[in-house]
C-alpha cells in the first residue's frame, strides 16, 4: 500500500476531529452555566477521541465527584439495584493526584483504580483548575497516543476558559445587582432627607432676617446642589452598569423644553433664553437624554460669575443630525481645558464640584453616536455644542 493511501484515512480522521473541536468551541461560547459546559466537554471528548468513557469530575475540598458522564458509561454506573450511585474519588486517590498535577496526562488504569465496573484500561486526564477534572477513558489495552493527548489538552483549555468566563460574568452580575440595590437605597433615602432639609429651610425663611436669612439661602442652595449631584451620580451609576447599549427614537423638543423649564424654575436668579422653537424631530438616544441637557445647563449657571447668569439655548435641524447649542456669559473655559473638561474627574477652573456631570454628558453623547465640544462665547463665556444623530425615520 502506497504512502498516499496510508495517509488518507488518518487525514480524514484528523479533519473530523478538528471539526468536532470547532463545533465544541461554538457550543462553549453559548454555554451559560457549569452544567452546560460539562455536557459539551464530555460529549466532545467522547467524539473526538472515540473514547467511550468520558467524565466531568467536580472538585470539592475532599473529593472528585462525577457530575456528567458519557452515555456508554451510564450502564456501568446507573445500575437498577443502585440508581443513585455516583462515582467518586476521595482526596489522596490516584485520580486526585492527577487532578493536582495541573497538566494533561496519559494513564493506564487497572481494575482496582476504576470507580465503576466499566472495562476501563487507558485514559487521559485533563485538570480544570479549581473546577475539577475531565477524563476520557477507553477499553483498549494501550496507552493513548500523543495526538489524542494534544486534542484532549486543547479541549480542556477551552473548557477551563469557558468556566472562568462564566464565573467572571456571574461575579459581575452580582456586583451590578449590589450596585443597583445600593443606588436605589442611597438615592431614595438621601432624596427624602434633602427634601426635608429644603422644606424646613423654607419654614425658617419666614422667621429670619439679615444674616440668618443668608444662612437659610445657603442651606437651600447646598441642598439643591446635593440633590442635583445625587441625580447625576445615580445616572452615572446606571451608565457604568451598561454592557449592551440600546438606543431608540426620542422626541427632542419635549425633552429639551421640559429641562429648560425646570432649570428656569429652579434658578430664579438666572435668565434662560430659548432662541427659537425647537425642531420637531426625533434623535437616537434613551431615557437619560434629559440628563445630558440638564447637566450642561446646570453647569452653565452654577459656574457663572456674572451678576445675572444668562444662558441661551438653541437647536437646529442639520440634515442627518441635530445641533444643540448652550451659550453662557460666565468666565469661559481656558483653551488648555477645552478638550479635557469632559473627561472623568475634570472640571471648570472655578468649580468646587466633582466633575462627574460633564463626564456623564460625554459618556451618554458618545453612546448615542453624537459629539460634544466647547468653544468661546462672545464677548465672554463658553458655548457647549452637542451633535445628536437623528432617528432613522427622521434622517
Structure description:
The chain has 395 residues and is an alpha+beta fold. It has two domains: 14-172, GAF domain (Beta-Lactamase, 2-Layer Sandwich), CATH 3.30.450; 243-389, Heat Shock Protein 90, CATH 3.30.565. 48% of the residues lie in helices and 20% in strands. It has a six-stranded antiparallel sheet with strand order 3-2-1-6-5-4, with helices on both faces. The longest helix is centred in the middle third of the chain and has 60 residues, at 146-205. It is elongated and about 95 Å long. One of its GO terms (biological process) is phosphorelay signal transduction system. It is an enzyme of class 2 (transferase). This is histidine kinase.
Task: Report how far apart the termini are.
Answer: 70 Å
Q: Identify the CATH architecture of the largest domain.
A: 2-Layer Sandwich
Mean pLDDT: 83
Number of strands: 13
Name the CATH superfamily assignment of the largest domain. GAF domain
CATH topology of the largest domain: Beta-Lactamase
Which H/E pattern describes the elements? HHEEHEHEEEHHEHEEHEEHEE
Question: Cα-atom Rg, whole angstroms?
Answer: 33 Å
Largest sheet: 6 strands, antiparallel
Our count of helices gives 9
Shape: elongated
Helix content: 40-55%
Which structural class do the helices and strands define?
alpha+beta
The stretches of 5 or more residues where confidence is low (pLDDT under 50) are 1-12
Q: Report the sheet-strand fraction.
A: 15-25%
Using the coordinates above, name the CATH class of the largest domain: Alpha Beta
What is the strand arrangement across the widest sheet?
Answer: 3-2-1-6-5-4
Q: Please give the domain count.
A: 2
Amino acid at each position: 500500500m502506497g504512502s498516499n493511501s496510508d495517509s488518507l484515512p488518518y487525514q480524514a480522521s484528523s479533519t473530523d476531529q478538528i471539526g468536532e473541536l470547532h463545533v465544541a468551541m461554538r457550543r462553549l461560547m453559548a454555554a451559560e452555566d457549569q452544567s452546560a459546559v460539562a455536557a459539551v466537554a464530555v460529549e466532545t471528548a467522547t467524539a473526538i477521541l472515540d473514547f467511550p468513557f468520558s467524565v466531568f469530575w467536580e472538585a470539592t475540598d475532599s473529593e472528585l465527584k462525577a457530575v456528567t458522564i458519557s452515555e456508554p458509561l451510564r450502564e456501568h454506573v446507573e445500575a437498577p439495584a443502585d440508581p443513585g450511585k455516583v462515582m467518586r474519588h476521595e482526596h489522596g486517590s490516584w485520580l486526585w493526584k492527577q487532578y493536582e498535577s495541573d497538566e494533561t496526562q496519559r494513564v493506564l488504569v487497572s481494575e482496582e483504580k476504576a470507580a465503576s465496573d466499566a472495562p476501563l484500561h487507558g485514559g487521559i486526564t485533563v485538570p480544570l483548575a479549581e473546577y475539577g477534572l475531565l477524563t476520557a477513558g477507553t477499553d483498549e489495552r494501550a496507552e493513548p497516543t500523543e495526538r489524542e493527548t494534544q486534542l484532549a489538552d486543547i479541549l480542556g483549555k477551552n473548557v477551563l476558559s469557558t468556566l472562568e468566563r462564566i464565573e467572571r460574568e456571574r461575579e459581575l452580575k452580582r456586583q451590578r445587582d449590589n450596585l443597583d440595590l445600593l443606588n436605589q437605597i442611597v438615592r431614595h433615602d438621601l432624596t427624602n432627607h434633602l427634601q426635608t432639609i429644603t422644606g424646613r429651610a423654607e419654614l425658617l425663611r419666614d422667621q429670619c432676617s439679615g444674616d440668618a436669612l443668608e444662612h437659610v439661602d445657603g442651606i437651600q442652595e447646598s441642598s439643591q446642589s446635593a440633590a442635583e449631584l445625587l441625580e447625576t451620580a445615580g445616572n452615572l451609576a446606571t451608565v457604568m452598569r451598561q454592557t449592551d447599549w440600546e438606543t431608540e427614537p426620542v422626541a427632542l423638543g419635549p425633552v429639551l423644553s421640559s429641562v429648560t423649564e425646570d432649570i428656569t424654575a429652579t434658578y430664579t436668579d438666572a435668565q434662560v433664553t430659548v432662541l427659537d422653537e425647537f425642531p420637531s424631530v426625533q434623535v437616537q438616544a434613551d431615557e437619560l437624554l434629559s440628563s445630558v441637557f440638564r447637566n450642561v445647563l446646570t453647569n452653565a449657571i452654577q459656574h457663572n460669575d456674572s451678576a445675572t447668569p444668562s444662558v441661551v439655548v438653541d437647536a437646529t435641524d442639520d440634515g442627518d443630525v441635530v445641533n444643540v447649542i448652550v451659550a453662557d456669559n460666565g468666565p469661559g473655559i481656558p483653551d488648555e481645558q477645552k478638550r479635557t473638561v469632559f473627561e472623568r474627574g475634570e472640571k471648570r477652573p472655578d468649580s468646587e464640584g466633582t466633575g462627574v456631570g460633564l463626564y456623564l454628558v460625554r459618556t451618554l453623547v458618545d453612546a448615542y453616536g453624537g459629539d460634544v465640544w466647547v468653544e468661546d462665547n462672545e464677548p465672554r463665556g463658553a458655548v457647549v455644542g452637542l451633535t445628536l444623530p437623528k432617528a432613522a425615520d427622521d434622517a
